[in-house]
Structure formats: structure tokens, C-alpha cells
Design brief:
6-stranded mixed sheet
Length: about 475
């Protein structure tokens, strides 16, 4: 009997990883250091522990033959291992600002959310919010329609329907559907006049008063939260746009990390400021590992520090100094998923006075070394106005930038001349550059790719 393929692979993984440091498995050492492991652990595990000799021996012991017809069994196992290789890790934050983090193991989660009912309602999706709106009104109509029907039935209104000598509690209420219609008319104050209560009946006025009071309360809560949900300031972030990529270039003899942000509305944000966080793995001196450690990234807009006067698109810069977590970053480090850059922009909406926060993130592969953003500001002499060309918002141009990190550049200033060379720098689209960066070897750091050529008007604007 053959061993199950999944159990074979999982058993091989467990037995290999649990081997003591320095031991040999299949002719290769399998020592593991939890504090100095590889950046791409799944890839490292695949290359270090899962090798053909050990796998074939395990399958042979389990009854698998690697010869003849059974050889395809091994091929299928290896195909499965290849499919399980390290995939690009999802970011903590999406480009639009939504979180990619899942919470598990929270005790009494529903109770905690119900205690914060109003915010829970605001965070619901629109389909559930509309369901609660219609269902809330219907249940209130239905509940009081039953009270009206029972009150009329016990008083004898149903059995004496059409009797001119009988005085009912609710006139012309002959069935339950009449009671439901009367409940809707009472709460919505429509008042068709065909069905109306008798004030001399003892239970009529208290029930009508109770329904109108509960109806006003329900309308205040439900319609109020629907209005607040529509007018939430977080939707303002959809008109705040960030560049698809970030750039690292040399500016004023210092390496700078740059991103671009813009506001497409004519009513701009007030008291706008920006800050960032670099999330990566960190090990303290006591050998405690923080897998998602946040490092502060200070951005400044020109010479305004962290305050952003966002009337036109701005290039936000972070000067890479010895206090920066990017001080030892090299171009080779951008190939791996070693960190994630989160950028937060906050400001006050001019028309409503509410605060809005826009967020985005950049992985290490989305940072372009040796490039800077192209100009988007142009002066139109015909209209006598400054014009912003958002077609070039995500475009970059090659820039002379050292190949070393900021630390080496500070210690050896002469390395500023070890730059990328471009004989004919032209405008380059972000996506084209990103694909080229991933395909280019980290040893050559070649930038002689085929870039998208700008039009003659764009070239003339760049020359100006």
C-alpha cells in the first residue's frame, strides 16, 4: 500500500525541520538560526531541505518506486512542491487603503460589537444596512398591526362588522390586512380616513401613542445612521491619489525616498500633513522577534516639513540619513519582499470640517532606484494659468543615483560618482519600468531598457 502523497510531504517537512542544528539530511546540513534566517523563508526551506535525494529515499521506503510507471508519482509530488513555493506576500495595506489583516481568536466578539452598536451599524456593508432599514420599519408595522387586530378581535369588532348599533374600537377594521394598513398609516401619519380609531375605547390611545413614539425613535436612529454612512468623511480619500511607485534618487547630495500625492478636487484639504511607517522584521537584543515592527518615516513637502499645501500634486521626500531605517538599503534589497512602506495623509475637509485620512502602501519591489518623478506643472500662455498634466502623474525619468546605500555614501562621498548612466534619458512609464526591474539581474543593475518615449510636446516641456 502506498503512502498518501500529502502525508509523505508533510512528514518529510516535519522530520527535516525538527532535525538538530548541524545535522545532515540527504548530504546537506540543515542548521537553522531563528534570528538570522533567510528573508524568503519558504524559498529557503524549499532549496535547503527539499532536495531530490532525500525525497526519493523517503518515497522508496514508503513503497514508492521511482522507476517505471511509478516514476510519475514522484513527478507529481515534485509538481506539488513547486506549486507550494513562496508566492509574493500580500501587503498589509492595499493601495486603496483597506487593511489586509484578519483577526482570529477574539472571545465574545459579537457581544463586544453589539455594545458598540452605532459604530457597528456604520461599518456594515450597504446591503446589510438597507436590509436593516427596511426590516426595522416592517417589524414595527407588523408588531403594532397584531396589537390592533387583537384589540379589535377581543372587543368584538370583527364579529360585529357592519352592525350599525355596535361601536368598534377601530372603525372599518374588518380583517388583519386592515390592521396592517392602519398601522402603516398611523406611524407614517398618512391618514387616508377610511380606517380611524375610536377615542372612547380604552386601549386605542395608549397603543397609538406608543407606536408613534417608537416610530419617531426608529426613524431617528435608522435614517440618521444611513445619512451618516453616506456622508462619512472616509469617502473623500477616493479623490486623493498616490503614485503607483516610489523612487529613490540623489537630491542635494543625499539619497531621498520620494512619492507623489495629488488632490483632484477644487476644494482642498486644510491643515494637511503626512507621515509614514516602515514595517519590517526586527530582532531586539534579547533575541525577541517582532515580525511587523514599525519604524517612523518622516516625509517633508519641499521646505514645509510634514505640512502639505495640496493645491497641486506634490512630491513628498524622505531624506535617508543615519536616523532613517533605510540607511543601509541597497538596490539589491529591493528585489526581495523585506519590508512595506505605509504612507498616511491626514487633513480637514474644507466644506464639512471633518477629518479625513488617506492611506497607501508600497512594497520593496514597488520602489524604483535611480529614478525621479517627471514634471506635471506647465504654464499655459493661452489661458494664462498653471496647468497640471495628470497623464504624467505616475511617470518617472532616470536620475543619476549612486549604486551604494546611504551609509556608504556618507562614509565615502566620492562614491557619489558611481551612478547609473543613461545616454538618452527619456520619460518612462511606471509599469514598464517595474517589469524591467524585476527581470533585470541584481548584479548588472542595467537600466538600458526600452522605455516609452515621450511626445515632442512633453520633451519640450521637460527642456523648459
Amino acid at each position: 500500500m502506498f503512502m498518501n502523497r500529502d502525508s509523505t510531504v508533510e512528514g518529510l517537512l516535519k522530520s527535516t525541520i525538527s532535525s538538530p542544528p548541524g545535522s545532515m539530511a540527504g548530504g546537506r546540513p540543515c542548521a537553522l538560526n531563528l534570528y538570522e534566517d533567510h528573508e524568503r523563508w519558504e524559498e529557503y526551506k524549499y532549496q535547503t531541505f527539499l532536495f531530490p535525494e532525500r525525497l526519493n529515499s523517503e518515497l522508496t521506503v514508503a513503497g514508492e518506486s521511482v522507476e517505471g510507471e511509478q516514476g510519475s508519482r514522484t513527478d507529481r509530488v515534485w509538481s506539488e512542491l513547486n506549486s507550494r513555493r513562496m508566492k509574493p506576500r500580500r501587503t498589509l495595506l492595499r493601495k486603496e487603503g483597506q487593511s489586509n489583516i484578519a483577526y482570529r481568536g477574539i472571545q465574545k466578539k459579537k457581544v463586544k460589537f453589539l455594545k458598540d452598536l452605532y459604530v457597528t451599524l456604520l461599518d456594515l456593508k450597504w446591503r446589510w444596512a438597507m436590509l436593516i432599514l427596511f426590516l426595522g420599519f416592517f417589524l414595527l408595522y407588523f408588531f403594532f398591526s397584531i396589537l390592533y387586530f387583537l384589540m379589535s378581535y377581543t372587543h368584538g369588532d370583527i364579529t360585529h362588522a357592519g352592525d350599525p348599533n355596535f361601536t368598534p374600537c377601530i372603525y372599518r377594521l374588518d380583517s388583519y390586512w386592515d390592521a396592517l394598513l392602519f398601522s402603516i398609516e398611523t406611524q407614517s401619519t398618512i391618514g387616508y380616513g377610511t380606517i380611524y380609531p375610536n377615542a372612547d375605547c380604552a386601549g386605542t390611545l395608549p397603543v397609538v401613542y406608543l407606536q408613534i413614539t417608537c416610530g419617531f425613535l426608529l426613524e431617528t436612529v435608522l435614517l440618521g445612521f444611513i445619512f451618516v454612512k453616506i456622508a462619512r468623511p472616509k469617502h473623500r480619500r477616493h479623490t486623493l491619489i498616490f503614485s503607483r511607485n516610489a523612487c529613490i534618487c540623489l537630491e542635494d547630495q543625499h539619497l531621498n525616498l520620494q512619492i507623489r500625492v495629488g488632490d483632484i478636487r477644487n476644494s482642498h484639504l486644510i491643515d494637511c500633513h503626512v507621515y509614514g511607517a516602515l514595517v519590517k522584521r526586527y530582532v531586539c537584543q534579547e533575541k525577541y522577534v517582532y515580525p511587523l515592527f514599525q519604524h517612523e518615516i518622516e516625509f517633508h513637502a519641499h521646505n514645509m516639513k510634514d505640512k502639505v499645501f495640496l493645491i497641486w500634486p506634490m512630491v513628498l521626500s524622505h531624506k535617508i540619513t543615519k536616523d532613517s531605517p533605510l540607511y543601509t538599503l541597497t538596490p539589491e534589497d529591493l528585489i526581495y519582499d523585506k519590508f512595506e512602506l505605509i504612507v498616511v495623509l491626514e487633513g480637514t475637509i474644507e466644506s464639512t470640517g471633518e477629518m479625513v485620512q488617506a492611506r497607501t502602501s508600497f512594497t520593496s519591489k514597488e520602489i524604483l532606484w535611480g529614478h525621479r518623478f517627471t514634471r506635471v506643472e506647465e504654464y499655459d500662455e493661452k489661458t494664462d494659468k498653471w496647468c497640471i498634466n495628470f497623464v504624467r502623474f505616475n511617470n518617472v525619468v532616470p536620475s543619476k543615483t549612486p549604486k551604494c546605500n546611504a551609509k556608504d555614501l556618507t562614509e565615502n562621498p566620492e562614491r557619489v560618482h558611481e551612478v547609473y548612466t543613461e545616454e538618452d534619458p527619456v520619460e518612462i512609464d511606471q509599469l514598464t519600468r517595474q517589469k524591467h526591474t524585476l527581470a533585470t539581474s541584481v548584479d548588472t543593475l542595467d537600466t538600458d531598457a526600452v522605455y516609452s518615449t515621450a511626445s515632442e510636446d512633453d520633451q519640450r516641456a521637460e527642456d523648459v
